[in-house]
Amino acid sequence: MLSNDILRSLRYTLKVNNNDMVRILALAEMESTSANFDAWVTKEDEEGFVRCPDIILSGFLNGLIYDKRGKDDSAPELALERRVNNNTVLKKLRIAFSLKTDDIQAIMTQQNVRVSMPEITAMMRAPDHKNYRECGDQFLRYFLRGLTHRLHNVKA
């Protein structure tokens, strides 16, 4: 998935504006402007679209973890990935929202996607592990949609 699509989806999920997104990114000690986020959340076929660098998405996800869980000064800084794949996004969202494997399975079941526990844990493994499984675009799309549904309905 494009970093832009993920940012756009998270913006809707979190019900935040561009200024809030800049604030979340700043928690990971990265800087940007509201105008940059405006270009990054613009759809690909619309005027003003600018591709979001993976390092910005990585920083935003790290900032989201700090925003949701708090920053532990005794722990080392979260690493910024120059190349972000769907598995990285899934892992970081799992950490940020304190989700367990059961929660991810429930979210996917609610989206009418059948997935087993071993499949989910395989997506959380290191890429060089023998049981590693790649997280596909469609899986991540359904997960983001389900996460949005879950968060919006809890508050309602």
Outline the fold blueprint.
Layout: H1 3-14, H2 18-27, H3 34-40, H4 54-69, H5 86-96, H6 101-110, H7 117-123, H8 137-155
Helix pairs in contact: 1-8, 2-3, 2-4, 4-5, 6-8
In total, how many beta strands?
0
Report on the biggest sheet: none
Q: What is the domain total for the residues?
A: 2
Residues in helix, %? 55-70%
Structural write-up:
The chain is built from eight helices and no strands. With 156 residues, it is mainly alpha-helical. The chain folds into two domains: 1-84; 86-156. Helix 1 packs parallel to helix 8 (137-155) and helix 6 (101-110) crosses helix 8 (137-155). The chain is globular. The model has no long low-confidence stretch (mean pLDDT 94). It holds the Pfam family DUF1456.
Key terms for this structure?
156 residues, mainly alpha, 59% helix, globular, DUF1456 family protein, YehS-like
Q: Quick summary of this structure?
A:
With 156 residues, the protein is mainly alpha-helical. 59% of the residues lie in helices and 0% in strands. The radius of gyration is 15 Å and the shape is globular.
